[in-house]
Amino acid sequence: MKYTIVVYGAPFSSQAPYSACQFAKAVLARGHSIYRIFFYHDGVLNASSLSIAPQDDAYLPAEWATLKREHNLDLVACIGASVKRGVITPSEAERYQRSGDSLQSEFELSGLGQLVDAALYSDRVITFGAG
Amino acid sequence: MVLHIFNKGIRHRELLKTCAELIGPDDSLLLIEDGVIWAKEHKENALIQGLLDAGVQVHALQEDLTARGITAADAIATADYAQFVELTERHPRSVSWF
Fold first, then answer.
1. How many Å apart are CA B31 and CA B56, to the nearest integer?
2. How far is B3 from chain A (nearest CA, A)?
3. Which end of chain A is more exposed for a tag (fewer CB within 10 A), N or C?
């Protein structure tokens, strides 16, 4: 089956991204595919390239990146939620005249249409809520 | 056949109440994260007991129980992440309460 996973929580303040990551690994281990992982609200902070974990602490942005490389996953952060929280691409940085960009290269910014598309084309949509 | 995923702790009784009111007899409830506190046997869990009495399957994620030092009541089935996925296979739709 095709799964889509929606993540609402930020690393370090919510368990949602950890749970979602463990769930994603279990989905793949059971032979399913993942159509998309959509990061929404504070969940977009998983896509930041600027956060730094204390040594020996689990670091979810890196875990997502590894999962992406191993399984060629589609990691999408909501562009509206991301820009508000300072997660921006080089082109957004230029448009809003910011000094740097902050989106991990394994992620992309896109609109809510990508969540609607995922709901239409996936067999299952599982949400990991926060807040 | 809806899988209700509940991740909120003891301060969110009203949310669990709303969730419990909307659970149908063919639905299942999965407690995860802080929600596993509701799997414990205690005087506050009449809502969960009501669901069990109505024949609803109630599950709790083992990893989250272990992390919090909670032992689930006998009537509640524990699940690992593989069994969590299996629950989503069996239930075509899911609702996450948070």
1. 13
2. 10
3. C
